[in-house]
């Protein structure tokens, strides 16, 4: 599915904005000449393959030319976006910036607040979003096309849940890398060569991601199946559960959610 009308990304030279831009360009969701990117420099690296992309320093020029405006600047800089877009579809991937904030900052009534991740550039992001009352079915189709090009997407009903998804799915590979690093350190402590340990753990997580992503069984079901098998992995899983790993993960995610809710207020 292709998006309707020109799309502009304010902050399209940043990690997340650039990833979304590459995701929609590589998928053909938007033609290069129908994509605008606004940045302080008026240019962005990594777009040599798409010479038709338009670059500007002027956010107002971008919002005037584009039917859909994606906001992807650091949350603390949201107040500096300086656009008036009452007749545009405004889509924000800025952490902690609410739909009410976005309406005040842009004058828009068709607002989508979303979260994505830099994995968008590889078509591997999970991008949930919530729409304001003014968003039309045509707008929804555009949003699905954009985030569908970046990976998997869902429209959700509760805006507060965007903060939870920011904590859970935004930090790629954040939490997974922390767990992987712990396993690598364990292997090194057992005398395994660091390069071998890292290669083994990287491959484990690559394979695990494929199995989790494509398998019919839920993660909880896979854990229970391993425990019921009563093998070596079961012993490790039982020990981790007794040690309270679920509680530790929840505490970490709670901290990330609180940070997401306050980051735009700094």
UniProtKB/TrEMBL annotation:
Compartments it resides in: Cytoplasm
Main location: cytoplasm
EC code(s) of this entry: 1.5.1.2
UniProt entry tagged with the keyword Amino-acid biosynthesis: yes
Residue ranges occupied by any Pyrroline-5-carboxylate reductase catalytic N-terminal domain in the UniProt entry: 7-96
GO BP terms in the entry: L-proline biosynthetic process
Enzyme class: oxidoreductase
InterPro entries on file: 6-PGluconate_DH-like_C_sf, NAD(P)-bd_dom_sf, P5C_Rdtase_cat_N, P5CR_dimer, Pyrroline-COOH_reductase
Keyword tags: Amino-acid biosynthesis, Cytoplasm, NADP, Oxidoreductase, Proline biosynthesis
Catalyzed chemical reaction(s): L-proline + NAD(+) = (S)-1-pyrroline-5-carboxylate + NADH + 2 H(+); L-proline + NADP(+) = (S)-1-pyrroline-5-carboxylate + NADPH + 2 H(+)
Protein family membership: Belongs to the pyrroline-5-carboxylate reductase family.
Protein name (Swiss-Prot/TrEMBL): Pyrroline-5-carboxylate reductase
Lineage: Bacteria, Pseudomonadati, Pseudomonadota, Alphaproteobacteria, Rhodobacterales
């Amino acid at each position: 599915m292709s998006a309707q009308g020109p799309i502009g990304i304010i902050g399209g030279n940043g990690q997340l904005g650039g990833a979304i831009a590459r995701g929609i360009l590589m998928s053909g969701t938007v033609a290069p000449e129908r994509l605008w990117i606004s940045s302080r420099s008026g240019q962005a690296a990594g777009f040599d393959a798409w010479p038709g992309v338009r670059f500007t320093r002027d956010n107002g020029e971008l919002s005037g030319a584009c039917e859909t405006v994606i906001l992807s600047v650091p949350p603390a800089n949201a107040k500096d976006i300086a656009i008036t877009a009452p007749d545009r579809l405004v889509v924000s991937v800025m952490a902690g910036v609410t739909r009410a904030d976005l309406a005040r900052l842009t004058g828009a009534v068709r607002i989508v607040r979303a979260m994505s991740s830099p994995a968008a550039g590889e078509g591997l992001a999970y991008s949930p979003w919530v729409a304001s009352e003014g968003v039309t079915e045509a707008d929804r189709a555009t949003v699905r096309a954009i985030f569908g090009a970046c990976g998997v997407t869902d429209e959700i009903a509760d805006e507060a849940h965007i903060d939870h998804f920011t904590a859970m799915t935004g930090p790629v590979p954040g939490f997974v890398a922390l767990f992987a690093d712990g396993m690598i350190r364990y292997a090194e402590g057992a005398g395994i060569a660091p390069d071998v340990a890292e290669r083994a753990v990287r491959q484990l997580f690559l394979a695990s991601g494929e199995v989790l992503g494509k398998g019919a069984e839920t993660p909880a079901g896979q854990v229970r199946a391993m425990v019921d098998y009563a093998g070596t992995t079961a012993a490790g899983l039982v020990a981790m559960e007794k040690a309270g790993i679920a509680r530790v993960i929840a505490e970490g995610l709670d901290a990330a959610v609180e940070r997401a809710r306050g980051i735009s207020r700094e």
